[in-house]
Amino acid sequence: MTANYEAEAEILKLARVLGVEPERLEYLARVDADDLKAFRERVTDTLFDANIAVLQRMALAARLLPGGVLAKIAEKVFGPLLCARIAGVVDVARGVDVAKRLSPRFLSEVAADLDPRRASAIISRIPLDTVLAVAGELAGRADWITLGRFVGHLPDPTVRRCLEEIDDPGLLRIAFVLDDKSRVDHVVGLLPAHRLGRVITAAGADEDLWVPALDLLNHLSAERRGTLAPMLGALPDGLRERAQATIK
Fold first, then answer.
1. pLDDT tens-digit profile of 73-131?
2. Are 178 and 187 in contact (CB under 8 A)?
3. Region 22-26 average pLDDT
């Protein structure tokens, strides 16, 4: 059951990388989730490594321009996709300086095209106010996949503040597509004690959230799952039975 949930999440993320509807990849549902993740990362590497020499030359040339000028060129000329590619090869300090000058709307579009593994050092140094503004933009577009990809690259205090700005259904959807599922319990631990129960019970109002809720339960520590047992009575019958089976 857990593997099926994780494969479903990986299909959503792979569909994003390939630019297709997830339904076109349903035939991959029985493939091991780790294999799907490895394939997704290889596809991403192939896309980002295309024309790498040109990107490196552009990153070197960018050193010659003042940060404010470069930020304007990035928004008006380069566009989000090219900026996302260059972010993987640009100097960290330079990348942070330019990112601070970009509008949250544009930066959120860059984030959607970015491979956070290649820009982790930049992401972790972006000011909190900028991160919160970008998170708000992404949440407004229901871009849970991009939000889930960045959680593992931000410091805990920043993640905690971002979680405060996301509603309960949104948290379930983010957790479902989190890139590193081993961090789910840690991230949940950043929430106020009362909020976890509220997040789980939020799934009762929307059947589309049942799988994300059950997947979340699967990745919580036994101790944390135990605290939820008294709260499951408020769930619809079908979800309650599956949730109770999950936390046993």
1. 999 999 999 999 998 899 999 999 999 999 999 999 999 999 999 999 999 999 999 99
2. yes
3. 95
b/e map 56-85, b = 16+ CB within 10 Å: eebbeebeeeebeebbeebbeebebeebbb
Residue 228 scores a pLDDT above 70: yes
Secondary structure (3-state) at 194: coil
CA–CA separation, 242 and 234 (whole Å): 13
Residue 151 C-beta-side C-alpha neighbours within 13 Å: 27
Written as one letter, the residue type at 127 is P
**Cα separation values, 122 from 89, 177, 201, 215, 237, Å:** 11, 22, 36, 30, 46
End-to-end CA, the chain: 14
What does the DSSP 8-state code read for residue 102? S
Using a cut of 0.70, tell me whether the model's pTM lies above it.
yes
- Per-residue pLDDT of 138-154, as tens digits, reads 999 999 999 999 998 99
Total residue count of the chain as it appears in this document = 248
Of 180, 176, 109, 170, residue with least CA distance to 150:
180
Show the tokens assigned to 56: 């490196």
- What is the C-alpha separation between 134 and 106, in angstroms, rounded? 9
Rounded CA-CA distance 212/23 in Å is 18
